[in-house]
Amino acid sequence: MAPILELNQVGKSFASAKAETVALDGIDLVLEDRGFLAVVGPSGCGKSTLLQIAAGLMPADRGTVKLLGQPVTAPPPHVVYVFQQYNKSLFPWRTVLANVEFALEGHSGISRAERRDRSRSLLQLVDLQDFAAHYPWQLSGGMQQRVAIARALAADARVLLMDEPFSALDALTRLDLQNLLLDLWAARNLSILFVTHDVDEAVYLADWVAVLTHRPARVHEIINVGLPRPRDPITTREESRFLKLRHALLAQLMKRKSSHA
Amino acid sequence: MPRWLGQLAPGALVIALALWGIEQAVHHGLVKRSLLPAPSDIGLVLWDLLADGQVTGPLSETLARLAIGFAIGATLGIALGLAMGYWPRLYRLFEPLIELLRPIPKAALVPALVLFLGVDNAMKITSIALAVFFPVVINTVQGARGVDPVLINTARTLGVGPFSLLRKVILPASAPFIFAGMRLSIALGLILAVISEMIAGTGGIGFLIIDMQRAFRVRQMYAWIVILAVVGYLLNFLLLLAEQRMLFWYRTTQRT
Predict the structure, then answer these.
(1) B156 and A92 in contact by Cβ < 8 A?
(2) β-sheet bridge partners, residue A3
(3) For the segment A182-223, what is each residue's pLDDT rounded down to a tens digit?
């Protein structure tokens, strides 16, 4: 498949009063069209920084980011970032419906009525049609993240960049949203770059899992998951290949962690 | 007894006691009637002012100037504050100037403004706008700089340009600070409205207060002061009401 998003030798450093810290060092990653690439790494290794650079929200110090072959210098259309902190990412003064509509307001070609209709149907897609008139802070965490996903779809996302989107949710809600995401990914031909520290989640969701090292973050290896789809929240996790991959990845991350502890 | 009455009763009692105390002090000659008339006398004058509609002319004159000056000062303050909060370069450019001008009591500028603008509305509205501008701009900057980067990046990743971002994200997110600034400002604006009328006036409440004092019509002077107190209270109350309506989302989200 053709690449949709390419990171080429991406580097980033942060200057403090005393010294310069290299956060990312020569990161090469390719997200294929309609692909699902997970990035795992120890916490604090710069995963979010990497994702923000890919989103055009932060400039890289070295290397290039390309979307469909074009260099990314500002947040490009059809690429939407989904934050871990859903409670800070939704507009508290807007209703759930108006939050979704926000993504459509920049387009002058869409009438008010059409904006409303499209947003309503997206809310239906994430099973929140009954909460259109609620405010985000009246919803549970899982529901809030559903709103954020519906809003990303309203922006006509082809690429989703997801920064630990489910890590603040309880275990059952997380499984729920993982499956919702897989359904949407398949149904709407999305390409997803998914950052997580949860190895289980990475293996369950992705086609490929990239493992980052601790600071400075480099790509240690990229694993082909190769588990059949559609995946099942219970049985997929019992397959021997799932367990083997989970074992290998966890061992690697824990070893890296202890050598830096 | 309803709850709100129970909450208001102690405060009302203190006010009533204070009035009664002054009343007694005047009646027993502890205070000269020519300096401070009995509250009941002031009340009678107040009643006359209200009953025959004498209050409307000066009141509407002062309020109209305050409204225009407030609108100008607050609009400029919000606009510059948002821009400074969003663009660090603008912040570094204007912040020192604002900090330098801010401590000047704006009343001290009224004589200078008279030199430039004369004694009419232009001068009075400008001095009100100046007094209103500073608290609003300072609070807006503070609010705009404090907007969570996650919220801003969310809007950016959804393809929002800088001006929509300011209007649709940073402005509403800063609204709690802007309202705090405006409530400070409305009180300052009222002060400037009164002072500018005292210094260079032919009408309005400020002019009447000083005019009555010069004419030894002390009861009238106090009556207008009471009217000013009520006006100030009501303006603050109206702003609080608007704030509660517009910022319904704020208190709930602050808990998390």
Answers:
(1) no
(2) A32
(3) 999 999 999 999 999 999 999 999 999 999 988 788 888 999
